[in-house]
Amino acid sequence: MTVSVLVPSSLSREAEDKREATRKLGYVARAATVFRADRLTVFPDPDGERKWGGGFVETVLRYAATPPYLRKEVWDRRDELEFAGVLPPLRVTPQTGSGSNDSGSLRQGIVTEVGSDGRVRVNCGLQHPVSLVVPPEMEVDQGERVSVRIYSRRPVRAKLVDEPFAGFAVDRADLDAALARDDAGLTVAASRYGEELTLGRLGRVVDSIADADGMTVVFGSPERGLPDICGITPDAVTEDHDESNGVRPSQARPGSLEDTSDGARFDLWLNTIPNQGSDVVRTEEAMFATLASLTLTE
Q: Are the C-beta atoms of 48 and 15 separated by less than 8 Å?
């Protein structure tokens, strides 16, 4: 099951300075990690951006998602990362295989040198880069990130594998394009104007996510929720979910719903904090509340 999270480029619009903006993005990265998101996408909201726009947001999130042992190799000194030290550690749970042939920890590495003998040198956080054979079905270039299965550290025994990294990937995409991805699953707009999440509705939503083999959850930014970003009124959201009569069937694709002004479409508008005690719920707080509910299992 694929879990994708979408946040706007205006995510840090209320931050007073770069330190506070960086800290906020750190908690967004924490939420994505805690609930095992596969992908964190930044979509453009130029009308809502202030000082800390999409380039800053994407860079800080990419840095946060990079394993600590690779950060020096991957990242040069950049203005956006001036206060990277305030980012909370993600402490991504290592992935392990099963069975006698595939046991061991899976780590992310970066190719530092490509040889002419079918081998590459990879920095994967061990004491020194390791020389590994490139499997026939793989092609790797210098600077590329790869997955390395570590079988033994002393002596080092490892191999390149075609497996996804632990943690989440960060990318940038238009909202409508991200919602139309083949692995988007059930597309959920998190909004205070959406259908209130109740115990009875939660079961139906989780079932729809399972049937769709994943979900894409979209969040707004401070003082600028998804209706504003999509160019629609809260009344339009209410009319939309009144007509849906509850949770939409999992086979409904984003293209089957009425367009908003920017082309974005959702299977469901959902209010996951129906009794909020604050006038404003921050994006990172909404992420924790929403993903905690929607990733529940029986």
A: no
What CA–CA distance (Å, rounded) separates 126 from 35? 27
Residue 68's closest CA among 110, 125, 118, 21?
A: 125
> How far is the first Cα of the chain from the last one, in angstroms, to the nearest whole number?
16
CA atoms within 13 A on the CB side of 50: 13
In this prediction, residue 116 has a pLDDT band, given cuts at 50, 70 and 90, of: confident
Burial class (CB in 10 A: 0-12, 13-18, 19+), 269: buried
- Distance (Å, rounded) from C-alpha 125 to C-alpha 129? 8
Instruction: List, in order of start, the domains of the chain with CATH numbers.
Output: 2-90+168-294 (3.40.1280.10), 95-161 (2.40.50.140)
Query: Is pLDDT at 160 greater than 60 in this prediction?
Result: yes
Rounded to two decimals, what is the model's pTM? 0.85
Q: Which tokens sit at 127?
A: 């004491």
Are the C-beta atoms of 87 and 22 separated by less than 8 Å?
Answer: yes
Q: Which residues of 205-216 are buried (b: 16+ CB within 10 A; e: fewer)?
A: bbebbbebebbb
Task: Pick the range with the lowest mean pLDDT from 44-48, 160-164, 263-267.
Answer: 263-267
pLDDT digits (tens, 9 = 90+) for 186-234: 999 999 999 999 999 999 999 999 999 999 999 999 889 999 999 998 8
Q: What is the DSSP string of 22-49?
A: HHHHHHHHHHHHHTT-SEEEEE--TTT-
